[in-house]
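target protein:
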Amino acid sequence: MTDTATLAHFFSKLKYWLPIFFIVLIVLETAFLVIRFGKFHFKETKVNVITGLSAILAQSVVKVYFLTGLYPAVYEHRLWDIGLTLPAWFLGFFMYTFIQFATHYFYHKVRIFWCLHEVHHSAIHMNTTTGLRNSIFDIVSLDIFFLLIPLAGVNPLIYFILYTLNKFWGSLIHINETIVSRIPFLEYILVTPSIHHLHHARNIAYLDKNYGEIIPWYDKLFGTYAKTKEQPVYGTLLVQQELGFWETQVHEFRRLWTDLRGVKNWKHKIGYVFMPPGWHPGDKSGTAYSLQKTQKRVLKNKPAGDS
């Protein structure tokens, strides 16, 4: 597709079908879980939906401006003019997926960003509505880096289509594991539900793994890819029970505020804001990296045959 009018029509169809797709998927998944297993986590699902709708409302004005105003404005000052050619699609795809991977990494590794992103990870059950669970305070944050895409000459329509397709796929990879989990062949080229489910697990081996949302290649390249070795347990190290709406939004900020008030040294305060979650002055043992190193050392020194 290289015709602007055709692409614009295709994008309008995607926008129309996206919310319908979400609703139908959620209804079908819920019906399956209730009929097959007789279970429905009403409180958490309600929080997921309310959180998602609240985040959409909170972000709507800024997101609309970002997509329809700022992005085209940056494109007008693009470094290269590559139009709607096949190279433009490839460049757009790889830039989009890499920036998504990189920003996702920083959401996990910088505590102030983790306070925003942790909302998404605080769900202790996995289903499609988990994909809606986002912070109402995450208005812009790291989205600004996506402006590198139009700066490189990728047409706004290409970005809008990639963004929307990512939303479709993003809802699928959160689907409950009893419906869809491993898709062996597809796992080599796309992030499947089983790959993304591990990203939501609080098992030490899975912490800060599988950042990709569309393709797993960057995780494999940078050493953050994990395969299923044990049953994932969802939630975070500090959240192991269902939370209400407001507690979901603010509890990680409260922890950060408590840590900030507990130190007087400004260097330590800055560390609490920008170092990884679990970091304390002079003590990194609570970070995901240190926990995994400790676990590997323990397993390595474990006597053979010791369970």
About this structure: The two ends are 57 Å apart (CA to CA). Residues 4-105+127-198 form one domain. The chain is about 60% helix and 0% strand. The chain has a mean pLDDT of 91.
